[in-house]
What does this fold into?
Amino acid sequence: MSVNVFKIIGDGRRYMKTWPMVRQLGFYFPEYRVVRATHLGIMFMPFFAILAAISQVYVNGWAFLPQAIAILLFFVSLPIQGLLWLGCRARHPLPLTLFDWGNELSAKLNSMGVRNQPLGAKACYLDMAQILKLAFDRLDRSYWEEL
It folds into this structure.
């Protein structure tokens, strides 16, 4: 079985952009916290990696260059780990409870005149994220207060 890491990272980026960043979903899904942490990591970790490596070499000298490179690679790998987790989660099949809830949400959107497709037999978390994003954009707050 071949695993394409770059495809998983690409799926993670797409899932990160698709997931609705609504605080209410943080109670039900870990994606809210992972997306926030990964986004902050992408913005700030390269700076912290370079700062940590330079300070390691500055304080301890050039003899500690291998340790400085290891620290740099660790800090750079943190957002990549978040993208890998999101990519694996994006293609993970939905459990039946979320599948039913997604179909109810899709039916509610269709009844309001918002065109979308119901979840298929091989629905995954990325499909659920697309429906949730559409629902949070189109449905009023009264529907979400019932949750």
